[in-house]
């Protein structure tokens, strides 16, 4: 934490920067959802725990912690904390010849947070579906959208992983952009993206393919929560002159989802392109990668809203909204690195075992739990 730039005036510093930031990180890992809750968490600890965090004598009042967290550089803090969590995360076992790291990209609006002009804060995140951790995020610029933030997000992911070689990025139809496809390919990675009416030419081409003549490549049926869903995957390599009208697209994919809920059956079709050839991406792989796009919704956004009440947090000053999001991401990443599937339960356990949590965060031994 000490490598993060200190935004405070040196003449008024009373508490070490690393101690303040470690306090915020630990508090959110223990379930604190607001800046006030972070301050309450540290004040409820015993004196030996205060010493471990670097406080001797006095503790910072809530306003002191709040002033720091609304001024610190959120991007720098995110890089430092994510690098720390990745250093203590066990490597993912590789299984199968075609195994690839799949990273889902999607945006989320922090509904309770506001910017000075009244706009809501909007973040674009990269989620590693194999480890369930957030690798990086970019805050959407004023009067903009997710599209210009795509390349800066790739830069941050590359900085964390060292290279994007052979990684598969999955995204929704908003990112079916020719510039995105070329950028991903230039870095040695691959893009699997849904195509809708925002790319009318490619969408029409995909729909007009002779799908009735394409054999079913994979079919899976799941049941649960009163619903039965069957997903049928068809994939075809377009060998006509010019191929698909989308850069680096190797295969056209159609996924048919048939759902039956309370006796009522609905069917929808999704069209996608992927920049991997058939020998490296079979229909069973394509179906799994398409479903992994929803991991960022189910395993990240849902947890942020339900467990950490992100949409209810009305952080509106300086970098406060983004810093609060960084701390929540760090908490999820930390608990997932410990093999926790239920983040809510993990935060409750961490709160009951505050000393163990502080030891894990302040120790230089990467495997301390």
TrEMBL record:
GO molecular function annotations of the record: DNA binding; transposase activity
Residue ranges annotated for the Transposase IS4-like domain, each copy included: 100-333
Pfam families: DDE_Tnp_1, DDE_Tnp_1_assoc
Residue ranges constituting the H repeat-associated protein N-terminal domain according to the UniProt record: 3-85
Keywords: Membrane, Transmembrane, Transmembrane helix
UniProt keyword Transmembrane, yes or no: yes
InterPro entries recorded: ISAs1_transpos, Transposase_11, Transposase_11-like, YbfD_N
Keyword Transmembrane helix found: yes
One GO biological process term: DNA transposition
Membrane-spanning segments: 20-42
Domain of life of the organism encoding this protein: Bacteria
Protein name: ISAs1 family transposase
Organism name: Micromonospora inaquosa
């Amino acid at each position: 934490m000490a490598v993060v730039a200190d935004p405070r005036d040196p003449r008024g510093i009373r508490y070490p920067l690393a101690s303040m930031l470690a306090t915020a990180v630990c508090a959110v890992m223990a379930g604190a959802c607001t800046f006030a809750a972070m301050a309450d968490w540290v004040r409820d600890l015993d004196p030996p725990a205060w010493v471990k965090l670097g406080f001797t004598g006095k503790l910072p009042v809530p306003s002191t912690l709040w002033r720091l967290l609304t001024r610190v550089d959120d991007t720098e803090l995110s890089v430092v904390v994510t690098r720390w969590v990745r250093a203590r995360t066990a490597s993912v076992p590789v299984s199968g010849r075609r195994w690839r790291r799949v990273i889902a990209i999607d945006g989320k609006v922090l509904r309770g947070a506001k910017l000075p002009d009244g706009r809501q804060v909007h973040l674009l995140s990269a989620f590693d579906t194999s480890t369930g951790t957030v690798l990086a995020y970019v805050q959407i610029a004023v009067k903009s959208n997710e599209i210009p933030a795509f390349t800066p997000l790739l830069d941050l992911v590359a900085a964390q992983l060292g290279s994007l070689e052979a990684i598969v990025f999955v995204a929704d139809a908003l990112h079916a952009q020719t510039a995105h496809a070329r950028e991903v390919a230039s870095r040695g990675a691959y893009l699997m993206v849904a195509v809708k009416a925002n790319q009318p030419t490619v969408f029409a081409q995909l729909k007009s393919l002779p799908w009735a003549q394409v054999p079913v490549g994979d079919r899976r049926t799941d049941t649960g929560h009163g619903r039965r869903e069957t997903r049928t995957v068809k994939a075809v390599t377009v060998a006509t002159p010019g191929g698909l009208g989308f850069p680096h697209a190797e295969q056209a994919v159609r996924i048919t989802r048939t759902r039956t809920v309370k006796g009522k059956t609905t069917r929808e079709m999704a069209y996608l392109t992927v920049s991997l050839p058939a020998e490296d991406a079979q229909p069973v792989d394509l179906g799994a990668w398409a479903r992994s796009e929803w991991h960022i919704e189910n395993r990240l956004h849902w947890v942020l809203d339900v467990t950490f009440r992100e949409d209810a947090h009305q952080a509106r000053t300086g970098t406060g909204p983004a810093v609060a999001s960084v701390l929540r991401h760090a908490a999820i990443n930390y608990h997932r690195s410990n093999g926790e599937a239920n983040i809510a339960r993990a935060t409750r356990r961490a709160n009951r075992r505050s000393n163990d949590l502080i030891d894990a965060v302040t120790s230089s031994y990467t495997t301390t739990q």
